[in-house]
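Q&A FORM
Asked by: J.P.
Topic: structure of RNA polymerase sigma factor

PROVIDED:
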Amino acid sequence: MIAEAQDGNVRAFELLVSSHLPQVRRFARAFASSDADVDDLAQEALVKVYKSLRSYRFQSAFKTWLYSVVRNAFFDATRSRAGRERSLEEPLEADHVQAPSGAAPADEGLVQEEERQRLWRALRALPPEFRTAVVLFDVEGHSYEEVAAIEAVPMGTIKSRLSRGRALLRTLLAGGQAPDASESTGGAGTSDGGVSSQGRRSGK
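REPLIED BY: S.T.
REPLY: Here is the structure written out as tokens.
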């Protein structure tokens, strides 16, 4: 099917990426500026995947290659809107977000929705490298090895980005502010913590 898609068979390409669409769209939420922008951003990334398909040489899993192209497309989009204020419309599927004790049953859904939206706002405020690591590992459920392959960096770098990204996420959720990306990238990470993984696999 990959070979057919590389030869320009659009139907083969659609079948090839169909199983990845929900994950790509969820990944896009961390980089989109609005609800409407999520679909636009995901579509733009998939167009780049299609245009780049001939460059895939079967040297890595197709999923790894696809996420690398998608990740680069999202980074390009983020850089193109640098300085623009980001808003959040869609909730994060985060089961660990709990309604405060004492909340009326009728209000629990609203409280949880607001907490999920607050979590997405905090995720979007993370520097792109931290944001990508946290979303791919903690939200998408990729392993350390898979995230390292997608990012094309050593696994130790991913562990550091996860640790620092989670720490910064806790700061943001507590009402703090995110530092500039130039101040927050690089350096050794601290101990892990923060966002709970919903689908982590091997490589821990």
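FOLLOW-UP: The first helix runs from residue 2 to 6.
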